Amino acid sequence: MTTHQTPVGAAASARTTIPASGRLLAWRGVDLLTAAMLAVAFGVVFWGFDTVVYPLISTATAGFPPAGELSLGVWLVPAVVGGLIVRRPGAALFTELVAANVELFLGNKWGVAVLLSGLLQGLGVELVLAAVRWRRFGPIVAALGGALAAVLEIVGYEWWSYVPDYSPAWKVLYLLFGVVSGALVAGLGGWALVRALARSGALNAFPPGQEVREHHLS
């Protein structure tokens, strides 16, 4: 006679992702602190990207400017990463807005307008996470979040402020390049970054770290 036991990790591994523990709207101190630290780090990265890399991209795509929007995903990464780590309403928006504030403080070519961009970008990821009720955080959800963040940023702001003189065809291409970058660079790239951080043990206090531990137990 044998008994059947289900390992703790096996039950958990049946789920694709683990939602935040406790009340969904109740942020822990570690949630706030970690999201803020990530945002500051990304804000510094933004400043470096604005200063060194973006001018090179602008030069390289001078012959076909819409292609420059393939770099958009870089600015969307904080929202995806914050949302995937903290897994509570407002995490994506908070991380993106704090990163935008740091970028503004350090100096950039767009000035205070980066705060509007941060709002739109964070909101895009929040809407996707809300659609799955903060219960799914896999690569598909991350890619959709990055893509929608790009759509809101471009349609809600960049079309009218950065490229108002583009032809309709160029505006469509500009949008497509941005969506591809949002899905791949911010979405899948952000998801991969979170997984790497979880495997390193840096996210042991968060659901991604718990997923890694339970996977090893299964």
TrEMBL record:
Task: Report TM segments.
Answer: 32-57, 110-132, 139-160, 172-194
Task: Report the Pfam families cross-referenced here.
Answer: ABC_cobalt
Superkingdom as given in the UniProt entry: Bacteria
Which UniProt keywords are listed? Membrane, Transmembrane, Transmembrane helix
Q: What is this protein called?
A: Energy-coupling factor transport system substrate-specific component
Organism (species): Oryzihumus leptocrescens
